[in-house]
Amino acid sequence: MGTVNSKYLWMLIFILLLTNFMTGAYAFMGELPKVDSPKIVQDSIGGPLEDVVATVGDEEITRADLYQTMRKGHEKETLDRLIREAVEKQSENGSKPTVKRFD
Protein backbone atom coordinates (compact mmCIF):
# COMPACT_ATOMS: atom_id res chain seq x y z
CA MET A 1 0.00 0.00 0.00
CA GLY A 2 1.21 3.44 -0.85
CA THR A 3 0.90 6.58 1.17
CA VAL A 4 -1.62 9.31 0.45
CA ASN A 5 -0.30 12.75 -0.28
CA SER A 6 -1.52 15.09 2.49
CA LYS A 7 -2.47 17.72 -0.12
CA TYR A 8 -5.05 15.35 -1.62
CA LEU A 9 -6.34 14.36 1.81
CA TRP A 10 -6.92 18.02 2.76
CA MET A 11 -8.59 18.62 -0.62
CA LEU A 12 -10.98 15.72 0.04
CA ILE A 13 -11.79 17.04 3.52
CA PHE A 14 -12.43 20.52 2.08
CA ILE A 15 -14.77 19.14 -0.61
CA LEU A 16 -16.72 17.10 1.95
CA LEU A 17 -17.08 20.11 4.26
CA LEU A 18 -18.18 22.29 1.36
CA THR A 19 -20.76 19.71 0.30
CA ASN A 20 -22.05 19.50 3.87
CA PHE A 21 -22.31 23.29 4.10
CA MET A 22 -24.12 23.55 0.76
CA THR A 23 -26.65 20.88 1.79
CA GLY A 24 -27.32 22.69 5.08
CA ALA A 25 -27.73 26.03 3.33
CA TYR A 26 -30.07 24.47 0.77
CA ALA A 27 -32.23 23.00 3.53
CA PHE A 28 -32.16 26.24 5.55
CA MET A 29 -33.34 28.29 2.60
CA GLY A 30 -36.45 26.11 2.40
CA GLU A 31 -35.68 24.22 -0.78
CA LEU A 32 -36.02 20.81 0.85
CA PRO A 33 -39.55 19.62 1.67
CA LYS A 34 -40.65 20.23 5.22
CA VAL A 35 -42.29 17.24 6.83
CA ASP A 36 -44.45 17.97 9.86
CA SER A 37 -45.09 14.36 10.71
CA PRO A 38 -43.80 10.93 9.76
CA LYS A 39 -45.04 9.47 6.46
CA ILE A 40 -47.08 6.75 8.20
CA VAL A 41 -48.99 9.45 10.11
CA GLN A 42 -49.51 11.52 6.97
CA ASP A 43 -50.86 8.46 5.16
CA SER A 44 -53.29 7.73 7.98
CA ILE A 45 -54.74 11.25 7.98
CA GLY A 46 -54.76 11.76 4.22
CA GLY A 47 -51.63 13.89 3.78
CA PRO A 48 -49.41 16.51 5.44
CA LEU A 49 -50.95 18.77 8.07
CA GLU A 50 -50.06 21.91 6.11
CA ASP A 51 -52.16 20.85 3.09
CA VAL A 52 -55.02 23.24 2.36
CA VAL A 53 -58.34 21.38 2.49
CA ALA A 54 -60.58 24.38 1.75
CA THR A 55 -60.48 28.07 1.01
CA VAL A 56 -63.06 30.66 1.99
CA GLY A 57 -62.36 33.90 0.19
CA ASP A 58 -58.72 34.61 0.94
CA GLU A 59 -58.64 32.41 4.07
CA GLU A 60 -57.15 28.93 3.82
CA ILE A 61 -58.24 26.04 6.04
CA THR A 62 -55.47 23.47 6.51
CA ARG A 63 -55.69 19.84 7.53
CA ALA A 64 -54.12 20.90 10.87
CA ASP A 65 -56.98 23.38 11.47
CA LEU A 66 -59.50 20.68 10.64
CA TYR A 67 -58.04 18.06 12.98
CA GLN A 68 -57.46 20.55 15.81
CA THR A 69 -61.11 21.61 15.67
CA MET A 70 -62.30 18.01 15.45
CA ARG A 71 -60.11 17.06 18.41
CA LYS A 72 -61.42 19.91 20.55
CA GLY A 73 -65.06 19.30 19.67
CA HIS A 74 -65.33 15.53 19.71
CA GLU A 75 -62.37 14.14 21.65
CA LYS A 76 -64.30 13.18 24.81
CA GLU A 77 -67.21 11.61 22.91
CA THR A 78 -64.88 9.64 20.64
CA LEU A 79 -62.81 8.37 23.57
CA ASP A 80 -65.98 7.39 25.45
CA ARG A 81 -67.21 5.46 22.39
CA LEU A 82 -63.89 3.66 21.92
CA ILE A 83 -63.79 2.70 25.61
CA ARG A 84 -67.41 1.51 25.49
CA GLU A 85 -66.73 -0.63 22.40
CA ALA A 86 -63.60 -2.15 23.95
CA VAL A 87 -65.45 -2.93 27.20
CA GLU A 88 -68.31 -4.57 25.28
CA LYS A 89 -65.89 -6.66 23.22
CA GLN A 90 -63.87 -7.77 26.25
CA SER A 91 -67.01 -8.41 28.33
CA GLU A 92 -68.36 -10.99 25.87
CA ASN A 93 -66.55 -13.77 27.74
CA GLY A 94 -68.08 -12.73 31.08
CA SER A 95 -65.15 -10.78 32.53
CA LYS A 96 -65.28 -7.13 33.47
CA PRO A 97 -62.17 -5.25 32.26
CA THR A 98 -60.75 -2.34 34.23
CA VAL A 99 -60.73 1.04 32.53
CA LYS A 100 -58.09 3.71 33.17
CA ARG A 101 -58.50 7.13 31.55
CA PHE A 102 -55.58 9.48 31.07
CA ASP A 103 -57.38 12.62 29.91
TrEMBL record:
It comes from the Bacteria. This is Uncharacterized protein. It comes from Exiguobacterium sibiricum (strain DSM 17290 / CCUG 55495 / CIP 109462 / JCM 13490 / 255-15).
